[in-house]
Write a structure and sequence with these properties.
17 strands; TIM Barrel; Urease, subunit C, domain 1; alpha/beta; 14 helices; 9-stranded mixed beta sheet
Length: about 475
């Protein structure tokens, strides 16, 4: 058993019993944290000098379509779900093969590690068969990241005389193959979930089938909720699911921006979690992210990056924009109530944003017993920020370390990332072999070029058709 002792760091534990420690130590035995405090000594432990570093729990990206990594830089000018579905699901996604998925998942996961994330929920709605599914999992596994693989289903163009995707139940044989094989245990670095259509994207009987299947297999099920009334497949889907006893903490909702107050209360009272993806939602949604509205009900938000074609999927970016977006909403609400300027306790704080990106994500993935805080007994998933660089050197000492991370830090400030007690990034560089990384980059670019060419896509134009009926 290997032992590691981090000495004299600024620790932002996200554990209320431990708090923040200036000059704190973390003792790690193999995969787990065994002690957090000051002046810890341990025989035969490899010592890491944490002085000049802020150490936080590894960031949790609670909603990302990692398979889209190869198609970065093309979607910033798309308008809403209409253009996204026309270009991605009805265009380039139909050209993916197993190797494309493997490359994107491997490189996309390495990019997450580079930016300080140790865990992702990979919402993988690109796979068409077992070969693609296994390739997606292989990419996650090889990267070294902790991942919940949410196996989804494709949304191809609707063809005449063919059954449309929103009428097709989740494939039992495929999820049983995974659950009885590679994911028979929930104790590994990789775990399994079901990415389902849900009532916004699938018919009610399909949603019922899928949720019951997930519950039978003991899996989290996660669904997108576009939410706008008049555009849902099932208008009253979530209230009906709640009435039928099908919602609970094992159901995760991505987005949900357009839920009205009654609908929001119904899903939260049922115990559902909601993951906000503020960057995507600010680009494409007519209603603000769920964060503040959830907080009013006492619920814990989680956050994720969503779609790489739009922007950098760094959780540092996600956290920062989520914080600023919610503060803007706070400010407007308080001004409207005549409570301006706001007292600090009435507004979102940077520590809140860090909470969404750590414990919030861990809770949504039902992994809060393993990750999300620097707590004895949990996995040693840690991210180390060097405070000596240009971004951070004047923010410490004496500053708020959560503020420094949320509003100043970038990937260049991350010296080390540990996942289950092993370095995935060290001294500012990914541990992944550099020669293999260079070859993979070339392969990803070739994959990108082929996908775009076969789909007839040009970045110089915004494509507006053909559209799914619901977005026409």
């Amino acid at each position: 058993m290997s032992r590691t002792l981090v000495k004299n760091a600024i620790i932002v534990s996200m554990d209320p019993k431990i708090g923040d420690l200036n000059g704190g130590d973390i003792l790690i035995d193999d995969e787990k944290i065994v002690e957090v405090g000051r002046n810890i000594s341990a025989d035969n432990a490899a010592v890491i000098d944490g002085s000049g570093h802020i150490v936080i729990p590894g960031l949790v990206n609670a909603h990302i379509h990692t398979w889209e990594f190869a198609l970065r830089g093309i979607g910033g000018n798309w308008v809403g779900s209409r253009d996204y579905h026309a270009n991605m699901h009805q265009g380039m996604a139909t050209r993916y093969n197993a190797r494309d998925v493997y490359l994107a998942n491997l490189m996309g996961s390495l990019n997450q590690i580079h930016h300080g994330a140790t865990t992702v929920m990979d919402w993988c709605h690109i796979v068409k068969d077992a070969e693609m599914t296994d390739a997606a999992i292989d990419g996650l596994d090889e990267s070294g990241i902790r991942a919940m693989f949410a196996r989804g289903t494709v949304k191809p163009p609707i063809k005449k005389d063919a059954t449309p995707y929103f009428k097709i139940p989740y494939p039992r044989a495929e999820i049983e193959r995974l659950r009885k094989g590679r994911f028979a245990s929930d104790d590994g670095r990789l775990s399994l979930a079901m990415a389902i259509l849900g009532p916004d994207w699938g018919e009610y009987d399909v949603a019922v089938h899928d949720i019951r299947l997930a519950r039978e297999l003991g899996l989290i099920n996660s669904a997108h909720s576009y939410g706008r009334k008049g555009k849902r497949v099932v208008e009253d889907g979530y209230p009906r699911l709640a009435k039928d006893g099908l919602l609970g903490p094992d159901h995760n909702i991505a987005h949900g921006n357009c839920f009205d107050e009654d609908e929001l209360k119904i899903v939260l009272d049922a115990g559902c979690t909601i993951t906000a993806t503020c960057l995507t939602e600010m680009l494409n949604y007519e209603q603000p992210a769920m964060i503040g509205r959830m907080a009013k009900f006492g619920a814990m938000p989680s956050i994720g990056s969503d779609c790489d074609p739009y922007f950098n999927s760094s959780m540092l970016w996600v956290m920062r924009h989520a914080f600023q977006h919610q503060r803007e909403l706070d400010n407007r609400s308080l001004y409207a109530l005549g409570k301006w300027p706001a007292a600090s306790q009435h507004s979102t704080q940077t520590h809140d944003a860090l909470h969404w990106a750590t414990m919030g994500g861990a809770t949504a993935l039902q992994l809060d017993h393993k990750i999300g805080s620097i707590t004895p007994g949990k996995q040693a998933d840690l991210t180390f920020f060097n405070t000596g660089g240009m971004n951070l050197f004047s923010s410490m000492p004496g500053g708020d370390p959560a503020h420094a991370i949320v509003l100043y830090a970038e990937a260049a400030d991350i010296d080390n990332v540990m996942i289950a007690g092993r370095f995935a990034k060290r001294d500012g560089k990914l541990v992944f072999p550099a020669d293999k990384l260079a070859k993979l980059r070339d392969e990803v670019l070739a994959s990108r070029e082929r996908l775009m060419h076969e789909a007839g896509y040009s970045y110089k134009r915004v494509e507006h058709g053909p559209q799914p009926e619901r977005f026409a």
